[in-house]
Amino acid sequence: MWLYRWLIHVLYVSTVEKLDARRRKSLAQAVPNLAALVSDPARALAAGNIAIGPQRRSAAVAVTGSLMTIVFWLPIALAVGVVKDGFFPDAAPDPRVLVPATLGAAIVLSTWYTRRRYRGGRCVLTRDGALLTFAGDTVFCPWALFNAAGRTILFFERGSQQFVRRFIVPVCPAAVPYVEARREEIFLFAQGIEVTTPQFRFRSANEAELRAWYEVAADEIGELLLQLGRRLGDAMPERALTPQELRETASRLAPAAALDGKGWLLASLTRLVFPPACCDCGGPTGTLQHFAAHKPLLRLGRLLNVEASECVWVPVPVCEACQQAARVRYRRWVFKRVKTAFVGPLFVGLLLLPLVAFRNPGAWVAVELGILFVLSLPGAALAYVLARMVGKNRTAPVRVERYAPAKGTVAIRFRRPGYAELVVDATRAAESQNV
Fold this sequence. Notes:
Strand content: 15-25%
Number of domains: 3
Mean pLDDT: 78
Number of helices: 11
Structural class: alpha+beta
């Protein structure tokens, strides 16, 4: 299994994804009038719609198409070999014709599969909202939906910190019932919180998940949607909501941040707002430090905490001085544990050395000290590995863990007392301004 994962990582993440990433466009390249759109979005969109095209994944199409051609060709050739006697009882078909025919059928099937698999999506910006299109399904999101406090959170490919498959953005719960999903831009098949399509779905009434299927990077398109929503989403669409739509939306509301009574802050990643102060010293700062929150794999209280490779990065305000102090604390903490594991056996050996020399005066003391020195090395190496694993949580100004991908939440704990309450107050104040 590990060999299979390693091959997939080398083939796709390290090679194919890098080649396809070079074909992505920056937001300025995809939107020629970006400056006008940012400065006066209402006027820019009144002049015409702005379309962001699908991602072109030529390398993935070529590699996957070659593999699928082999996968399809083998069963086709085998099936033809089994049934050819029934269809051609008198004379077997010429292999010079049979092989190209079966191979051509396999190429047609693989081409059809890869075109469907990597066709990408389109994002069309209009004066009323954003249209997200994929495979004939179109989701209309009014600008009021993206008029919400928070930021875009990226979900990276497993085993990578560069390639994004999906991202989530905060949304305004009051605008959720106005979202519509249509097939072929005509048939309405989902509305409000029930909209679930390959390119768009609601995690809750406060968050929406989108696929990174566009020619622009996920963080850029996510921030653009939020920026336009905050500029254009002051008014709701002119449509009366039914009591059922209001109840369905209210039932899916999720708190942005809350304390669990044990010092841990349970927070939504997209809607979490930090005060402009360092979480360690409390001084004003605009410097952010990113901490990895991993998905828990096996957890038994405080004794055992095994984490999976899937993670998300949480930016937390930490000033430069506190970051440097945390690095010094970490190095001292690791050195102290390694020193204890290395010197401990030597100290015990020196205490027992007089007893050995008394019973055997001719003992070679230098050899015994050398043996104790060699025996201390594995313990010091093991202590170094364990200290590096544990020391980051013990000395860092922030502990981030228990990442829940399905909910988009993490658990955060700060060294500084009272900072968690400040985060809760800042998050609630930001949300109250967008209600």
